[in-house]
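Friendly challenge for the regulars: who can give me the structure tokens for this chain first? No prize, just bragging rights.
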Amino acid sequence: VILIFSGIFLCNYARDNAPNEGAIDGYVVNKDGDTVVEHYFEEGGMSTITVDLTDCGIQIVKGGKTSYVVMENFLTSRYICAVSGKILTVSNNITLADYINFDGTGVKFGGVWQTLRAMFVDKGNTDRTIYVHIGEDEIIKQINVNANGGVVRLVGFNDGQNVKLNVNNATVEMDGITAESVTVESVKSDITVTNTSSKTLEGNLEKGKFNVSTAVIDEVSLTAEKTQLNLLSLAAKSIEVASAGANVSFSTPYVITDYIIRATAPDGKIVVDETDMGTAVNTADGQAHPGNIKIDCEDASVTLTFGETNIPVEAPEDPDDNLENE
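First reply, four minutes later:
Bragging rights claimed.
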């Protein structure tokens, strides 16, 4: 018994004295009956954001002068929030790897103490929300979001970063992003991407909805199973979609002659500019075209609309490498 309590005391002492690289302040206040924890970080201390959370709301926003994380109803025994090696990590999925951490600052026993306290002390509030605010002077090159449940919002990042989303049974809103790449793994989730530009968008989607609107994305590659795909107001050079069990809609400010279109819908139909084209379309004519559309829709319908001049999407800058905007 003495050894057990000595071990718990050591874990508590190590947790309280282990440094959190880049953290300036962290304190707890009560607000409208919620427990609110705030963590502040030094400028220039991060280039990667990794968020791994279950059953909570997540908002990741860039702007302002200060980088900080606000956590509502996250008890200190049930999460990790730290910067190490310019990686900001926020997680409430504690594993054996977190029990004892070896890094450049020494040995951290926080995971053991967190687990013991979660088992015997904390009861917790299941209505949890996290706000990650990144200062405008930070240059973020990688954003990783793993979310199981809840609502995820990603807003205002324009650093040309790589964005990876892995979501299950979640609602995702991504707005005002300028990215190098966007990769999505989704199960039973509704995802909306607006006012976003990226060189690539890749997705593996299982059930739910995937909506893209008012976006400039060079290459789109999506595999969808029972996922409604709405790719609207989208300026893209290459679209490749394989869909099973849900309709596909695509609209663009570019004109139809900018593309080679290959589309099949054996158990549905294909509509191009409000004209029923049957179950297969192939416009390949032996000539070079700047854009390519390939859509295979097994047992649903495909709708394609071209030349929408009222869409506020700017064409990419280099006219030699991109499509002409009508």
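The two ends are 78 Å apart (CA to CA). The helical segments are 2-17, 110-120. Your move, everyone else.
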